[in-house]
Design brief:
Blueprint (H helix, E strand, L loop, with lengths): L14 E6 L2 E6 L22 H12 L6 H7 L5 H17 L4 E6 L2 E6 L4 H8 L1 H5 L3 H13 L4 H8 L4 H9 L3 E6 L7 E5 L1 H6 L11 H4 L3 H21 L1
Antiparallel strand pairs: 1-2, 3-4, 5-6
Helix pairs in contact: 1-3, 2-3, 6-8
């Protein structure tokens, strides 16, 4: 958090000051240490961290997965859930103003501190994420069927894909992208499959309602016809010129 510099006449607190890019970060060992913001030359006031913002940022930084607003409220010692959401908005505004590589996104019913998509190419070289996240076309087909029609049985998946998919289901379960949701009431009580929270995190979705609809994925028919007509006109002109 940002604080005024203590004069020799002021009572001292155990703290460490680190000047970074014109900012002064001070970490107090005592929870009741006075916290005041100062305006530093050349620094946008929006980019300054209050004690609460710093606690929120620290919690998000060390979290291994999405944290709900209620849990963030408790971990950062905030007044209520509304304050947690307000601080997230302020932090995001601060990141936007100072050109930070980070942003706070809502995924899988929680919030995460993530790097911006702009840096995915370089970060992928470091962590080899593409190799870890790569799925074969059959696996993606199976995952898409489960995502859009869940919960459903293996036979229902196979009726759509027209091929046996036991291996694909096992592979997706090993990757923690789908799970067994229960048993169907039909003969033999087969397992029902559904997507996991890891699936939402991986694809950056807050919930299943955020999945793209068919009309969004499908190319508009009017545009398709217009493109076909323009291609035909171009071919006719070429033939006439020849």
């Amino acid at each position: 958090m940002f604080n005024q510099i203590h004069s020799p006449l002021q009572p001292q607190h155990p703290w460490m000051a680190l000047p970074v890019d014109g900012r002064r970060w001070e970490f107090f060992a005592q929870n009741d240490a006075p916290a005041m913001l100062v305006l530093l030359p050349g620094v946008d006031p929006v980019c300054l961290r209050t004690a609460k913002m710093a606690r929120m940022e620290a919690v998000l930084l060390v979290s291994n997965g999405p944290q709900s607003a209620r849990r963030l409220m408790k971990l950062a010692t905030l007044a209520d859930v509304s304050e947690a959401r307000r601080l997230i908005d302020r932090l995001n505004l601060s990141y936007d103003r100072d050109g930070s590589a980070f942003c706070i996104e809502r995924v899988a019913s929680g919030y995460r501190l993530l790097t911006r998509p702009l840096f995915a190419f370089w970060l992928g070289k470091i962590h080899h994420r593409q190799a870890e996240l790569k799925l074969s076309p059959p696996a993606l087909e199976t995952l898409a069927i489960v995502a859009y029609r869940q919960p459903l049985t293996r036979s229902e998946i196979e009726s759509v894909r027209r091929v046996q998919c036991s291996d694909m289901l096992k592979h997706l379960m090993d990757r923690n992208l789908i799970r067994i949701a229960g048993e169907d009431d039909s003969l033999g009580r087969p397992f029902l499959y559904e997507t996991t929270r890891q699936f939402l995190e991986l694809f950056g979705l807050t919930d299943l309602d955020r999945l793209p609809h068919a009309d969004v994925l499908r190319k508009p028919r009017a545009a398709s016809l217009a493109d076909a007509e323009s291609r035909d006109d171009g071919m006719d002109e070429t033939s006439a010129a020849a």
